[in-house]
Recover the amino acids of this structure.
C-alpha cells in the first residue's frame, strides 16, 4: 500500500517534471515576447524524433545524441520565431494573430513529421537499459529517476544562466522592457531568437526524456503541452519555481486521480484541478499581480 | 431596423440557391452534407464573432458548447422522446448556463489565462462525453437523431433540411447583428477596447462579459443542434480541441468582427480540405500553413480585403463627392456664457481620505469639500497624489481609510460603474477613448447608464430598445456639436490629440452628470487649443455641472477655476481662491523649494 503510494508519487513527480520543463519554456517565451505558443508541445515531439534518428538511426553515442538533439531542437525554435514572430513583431495588437498562428504552425509541424517519419510509432530505449530497480520493496522505473534528476539540474543551470551571466541579464532586461534594452545596446532581435532557442531546447529535452515512457508519435507533444499549459497557469506565468511546482502538482493530480479515482477521466483531472485552482487563486502560486496604470 | 437589414437579403438567397448547382449523384449528395455542415459550423462560429470579435475575449471551447448543445438535444429527443422544439429550447438553456458558468469563473483572469481555462473546459467536456456512457453512449455515440417535421412538408430531406438550417442561421445572424447595433453591443465593444474606461462609463464589466459568454455558448449550442439533426448521428470525436481551434480559425480568417466574414470563414475552412485534396498527404499541412499566413498578414480577415476592394472601387466611381474630413470647422461661440455662481451646498465631501500602495502613502488624511456649482481645481507638484484622488473618487482604486460622501451618500469603495450611475463622470490623464469606435459611438457609450433595455429586450427587438439607441445617438450628436466637434464618423484612433480630448469630455458629459472629474484636460495642448478648452469648460459650467479638475497650466487654471486645492506629498497644503493659493508661502515652497528666499 505504502510502496504503491511511493511508486505513484515518483511517477507523478517525474511526469510532472516533464510538464514543468515545458511550462518553463512556455513561460520564458510568454514573459519575454508576450507570445502564447501553442506549438510548444510540438518541440517535445521534434526532440523525440531527432533522438530516434540520432540514437536509433545514426547510432551515435547516447550523450552525443542527446546534446545534438537539444541543439537541433533549439535551432528549430529559432527558425520558428523567425517565421512566426519576427514578421509581425512591430505591429500593434499582434497577441491574438500570433497565438492563432502558432496553432496553425502546430498543425503544420505535426503533419510534416507525420509525412517524414510515417504513421507508425517509434519506441526509444530507456537511458539505463533496465526495467526497474528495487529500493526496500519499492520498485521504480529508472527513467523516472533520470527525469527528476535532469530536471533539477536543468532548472539550476537555467537559474544560474539568467541570474549570473551577462547574457542572462541581457535576456531579462529585454523581457522587461525591449525599448530600453535596445537603448542600452542590447540586440533585441537576437535575444528573442535566443529566448525561443532556450525555451524549445528545454522542451526538446523534455520530449526525449519522456519518449521512452510514451511512444514517439507526431501527436505526442500536443497532449503533454496542454497539461504543461495548465502547469504554467497553476504556477503563475513567468515564475520559474512556479512552473516546476505547478508541473509537479499537475503530474501528481493526474497520476493519483487516474489510479485512485478513475483511469477513464485521467486527462480531465489536471484541468478540473486547474479550474478549481483558478477560482480560489486566480494569479497562480507565484504569479505577480499586474496592476494597470490609469 | 428590419428595413435596414434587407440589404443583406441577397446573401441568404444566393446560399439557398447553391444546392441547385450541385452535380448529380453521390458527389452532389456529399457536397449537400458539406453544405449542412458549413451552416451548422457558421452558426457556432457566430458565437465567436460575439465573444472574440465584439467583446475581445478568447475562447477555445466553442466545440465544447457545440458538443453540449448537440448532446443535450440528441439525448432529450432520442432517449427521452421529447418533442423536437422543446429539446432545442432545453439544449440552448443548458449550453447558455455552461457559458454563464465559464464566463463567471474566468472573470478575474486576463485574456491568456482565459484562453487556457477554456481549453481546460474543452478537454473536460471531451473526456466526459467519451466516458459518461449512461448519458452520451460513450464512443458509440447517438444515432437516429430526428429532424423537424414541418407541417405540409413532412420529414426533411438533406436539401430541405439545408434550407431549414439556413433559416435558423439567418435568425441567429439577425440576432447577432441586432446585438452589435444595440446599447449592449456598444458596451461589448467598449469592454474590448478599454475595460477601465468602460467601467467608468457605467458598464458592469462582470455582467457584460458573462453575457457575451452566455450568448456565444448558446450560438455554439444552436450550431451543435443543427449539426446533430443534420448528420443524424453524433459521436464524441467531433467535439474536440481541434474543432475548437477550427471555429476560432473560421472567425479569424473570415473577419472576426463581421457576420458575413465569419460565415465566409466557415465556408472556406470547411471546403478548403476538399479543394486541397489533390495535394493528398499534404492537405492538412498546407491547411495549417494557410492559417498561419492569413492570420499573420491579414489580421482583420479575408472579408476586410473584400471590403477594402469595394471601398476603393466606390471611391473610383464617384471621386468628386468625397468630402475632405479635415476642413471641419470649430463652431465655438467666443463670447463667454453666463456662468453659475458656486453655492454653499456641498456636493462631494472627502473626509480624512488615505490611499496607500504598500509603504507609499499616495494620499494621506485628505479633506476636501466641493460645493454645487464649483469649478474646483486640484494642483500640486508631480507625484503629489492628485490622480490617485481622482482614481479613488471614481472607484478605480479602493480607499485605505476615510469617507467619501456624495449628496449625503457614502460612495467610498463602490465599483466605477455604480459611481458613474450616481452622476459622477470622468476623463483620464492619458485619454482612454475606445480607439476602434467612431467619435459618435464613443460618446454614445457614455449614455449607456441611461438605457434600460437588457439582453432579452434586445434579442426580442423591443421597440423601446430602438428608441433608446436613437436617443443615445442624438444626444451624442448634440453634445459633440455643442462642443464644436463635427467629425462624428471618424474612428477615435484617427483623431488628433486635441480632438480626442474633446470627444472624451463629450463622453463624460453626455449622460448629464452632476459632477465632472477632469484629469489634466489641457495636458499636451498648444496655446490655441487650451484657449478653446477654457471656452468649452465655461459652456459646460454654464450647463450647471460641478467640476473637479487636475491641472498644471496655471493661466488656464486662473481662467476657469473658482476654487483651488493644493496637494504635496499626498497631503493638502492650501486651499482658497486661485490667486490666494498661488501666493501662499507653503505652495511656493512646494513648487520651488526652500532656497527661493535667498534668491
Amino acid at each position: 500500500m505504502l510502496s504503491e503510494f511511493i511508486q505513484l508519487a515518483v511517477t507523478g513527480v517525474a511526469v510532472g517534471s516533464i510538464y514543468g520543463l515545458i511550462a518553463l519554456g512556455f513561460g520564458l517565451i510568454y514573459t519575454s515576447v508576450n507570445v502564447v505558443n501553442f506549438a510548444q508541445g510540438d518541440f517535445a515531439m521534434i526532440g523525440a524524433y531527432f533522438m530516434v534518428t540520432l540514437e536509433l538511426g545514426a547510432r551515435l553515442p547516447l550523450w552525443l545524441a542527446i546534446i545534438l538533439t537539444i541543439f537541433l531542437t533549439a535551432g528549430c525554435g529559432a527558425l520558428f520565431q523567425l517565421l512566426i514572430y519576427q514578421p509581425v513583431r512591430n505591429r500593434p495588437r499582434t497577441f491574438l494573430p500570433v497565438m492563432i498562428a502558432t496553432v496553425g504552425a502546430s498543425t503544420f509541424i505535426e503533419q510534416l513529421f507525420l509525412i517524414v517519419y510515417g504513421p507508425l510509432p517509434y519506441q526509444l530505449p530507456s537511458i539505463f537499459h533496465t526495467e526497474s530497480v528495487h529500493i526496500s520493496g519499492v520498485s521504480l522505473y529508472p527513467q523516472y529517476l533520470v527525469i527528476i534528476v535532469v530536471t533539477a539540474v536543468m532548472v539550476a543551470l537555467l537559474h544560474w544562466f539568467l541570474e549570473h551571466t551577462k547574457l542572462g541579464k541581457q535576456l531579462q532586461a529585454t523581457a522587461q522592457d525591449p525599448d530600453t534594452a535596445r537603448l542600452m545596446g542590447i540586440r533585441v532581435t537576437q535575444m528573442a531568437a535566443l529566448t525561443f532557442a532556450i525555451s524549445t531546447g528545454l522542451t526538446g529535452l523534455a520530449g526525449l526524456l519522456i519518449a521512452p515512457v510514451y511512444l514517439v508519435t507526431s501527436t505526442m507533444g500536443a497532449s503533454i503541452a496542454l497539461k504543461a499549459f495548465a502547469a504554467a497557469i497553476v504556477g503563475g506565468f513567468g515564475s520559474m519555481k512556479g512552473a516546476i511546482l505547478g508541473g509537479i502538482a499537475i503530474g501528481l493530480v493526474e497520476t493519483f486521480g487516474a489510479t485512485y479515482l478513475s483511469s477513464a477521466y485521467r486527462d480531465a483531472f489536471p484541468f478540473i484541478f486547474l479550474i478549481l485552482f483558478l477560482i480560489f487563486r486566480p494569479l497562480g502560486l507565484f504569479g505577480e499581480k499586474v496592476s494597470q496604470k490609469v | 431596423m428590419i428595413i435596414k437589414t434587407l440589404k443583406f437579403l441577397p446573401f441568404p438567397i444566393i446560399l439557398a440557391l447553391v444546392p441547385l448547382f450541385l452535380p448529380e449523384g453521390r458527389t452532389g449528395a456529399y457536397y449537400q452534407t458539406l453544405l449542412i455542415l458549413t451552416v451548422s459550423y457558421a452558426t457556432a462560429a457566430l458565437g465567436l464573432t460575439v465573444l472574440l470579435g465584439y467583446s475581445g475575449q478568447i475562447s477555445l471551447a466553442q466545440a465544447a458548447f457545440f458538443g453540449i448543445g448537440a448532446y443535450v438535444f440528441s439525448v432529450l429527443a432520442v432517449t427521452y422522446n421529447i418533442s423536437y422544439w422543446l429539446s432545442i429550447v432545453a439544449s440552448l438553456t443548458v449550453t447558455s448556463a455552461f457559458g454563464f458558468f465559464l464566463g463567471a469563473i474566468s472573470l478575474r483572469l486576463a485574456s491568456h489565462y482565459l484562453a487556457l481555462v477554456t481549453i481546460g473546459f474543452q478537454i473536460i467536456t471531451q473526456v466526459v462525453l467519451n466516458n459518461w456512457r449512461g448519458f452520451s453512449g460513450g464512443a458509440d455515440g447517438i444515432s437516429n437523431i430526428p429532424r423537424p417535421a414541418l407541417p405540409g412538408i413532412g420529414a426533411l430531406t438533406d436539401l430541405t433540411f439545408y434550407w431549414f438550417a439556413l433559416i435558423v442561421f439567418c435568425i441567429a445572424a439577425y440576432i447577432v447583428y441586432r446585438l452589435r447595433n444595440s446599447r449592449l453591443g456598444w458596451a461589448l465593444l467598449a469592454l474590448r477596447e478599454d475595460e477601465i474606461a468602460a467601467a467608468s462609463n457605467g458598464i458592469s464589466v462582470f455582467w457584460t462579459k458573462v453575457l457575451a459568454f452566455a450568448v456565444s455558448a448558446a450560438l455554439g449550442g444552436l450550431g451543435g443542434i443543427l449539426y446533430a439533426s443534420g448528420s443524424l448521428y453524433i459521436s464524441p470525436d467531433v467535439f474536440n480541441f481541434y474543432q475548437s481551434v477550427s471555429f476560432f480559425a473560421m472567425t479569424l480568417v473570415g473577419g472576426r468582427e463581421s457576420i458575413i466574414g465569419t460565415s465566409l470563414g466557415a465556408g472556406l475552412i470547411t471546403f478548403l480540405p476538399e479543394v486541397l485534396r489533390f495535394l493528398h498527404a499534404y492537405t492538412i499541412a498546407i491547411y495549417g500553413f494557410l492559417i498561419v499566413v492569413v492570420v499573420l498578414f491579414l489580421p482583420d480577415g479575408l472579408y476586410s480585403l473584400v471590403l477594402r476592394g469595394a471601398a476603393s472601387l466606390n471611391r473610383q466611381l464617384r471621386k468628386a463627392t468625397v468630402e475632405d474630413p479635415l476642413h471641419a470647422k470649430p463652431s465655438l461661440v467666443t463670447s463667454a456664457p453666463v456662468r453659475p455662481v458656486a453655492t454653499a451646498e456641498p456636493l462631494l465631501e472627502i473626509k480624512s481620505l488615505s490611499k496607500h500602495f504598500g509603504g507609499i502613502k499616495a494620499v494621506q488624511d485628505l479633506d476636501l469639500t466641493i460645493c454645487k456649482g464649483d469649478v474646483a481645481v486640484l494642483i500640486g507638484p508631480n507625484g503629489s497624489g492628485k490622480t490617485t484622488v481622482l482614481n479613488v473618487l471614481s472607484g478605480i482604486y479602493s480607499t485605505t481609510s476615510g469617507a467619501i460622501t456624495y449628496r449625503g451618500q457614502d460612495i467610498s469603495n463602490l465599483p466605477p460603474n455604480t459611481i458613474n450611475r450616481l452622476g459622477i463622470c470622468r476623463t483620464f490623464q492619458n485619454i482612454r477613448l475606445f480607439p476602434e469606435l467612431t467619435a459618435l459611438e464613443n460618446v454614445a457609450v457614455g449614455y449607456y447608464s441611461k438605457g434600460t433595455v437588457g439582453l432579452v429586450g434586445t434579442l426580442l427587438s423591443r421597440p423601446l430598445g430602438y428608441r433608446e439607441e436613437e436617443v443615445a445617438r442624438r444626444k451624442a450628436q448634440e453634445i459633440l456639436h455643442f462642443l464644436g466637434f463635427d467629425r462624428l464618423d471618424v474612428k477615435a484612433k484617427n483623431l488628433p490629440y486635441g480632438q480626442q480630448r474633446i470627444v472624451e469630455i463629450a463622453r463624460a458629459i453626455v449622460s448629464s452628470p452632476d459632477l465632472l472629474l477632469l484629469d489634466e484636460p489641457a495636458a499636451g495642448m498648444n496655446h490655441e487649443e487650451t484657449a478653446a478648452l477654457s471656452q468649452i469648460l465655461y459652456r459646460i459650467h454654464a450647463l450647471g455641472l460641478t467640476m473637479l479638475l487636475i491641472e498644471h497650466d496655471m493661466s488656464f487654471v486662473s481662467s476657469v477655476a473658482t476654487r483651488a486645492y493644493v496637494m504635496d506629498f499626498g497631503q493638502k497644503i492650501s486651499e482658497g481662491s486661485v490667486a490666494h493659493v498661488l501666493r501662499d508661502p507653503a505652495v511656493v515652497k512646494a513648487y520651488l523649494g526652500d532656497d527661493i528666499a535667498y534668491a
Q: What stands out?
A: Chain B has two domains: 7-311, 346-598. Residues 25-54 of chain B form the longest helix (30 residues). The CA atoms of residues 509 and 540 of chain B lie 8 Å apart. Strands of chain B lie at 346-357, 360-371, 375-379, 401-406, 409-410, 424-426, 515-519, 546-550, 563-568, 571-576.
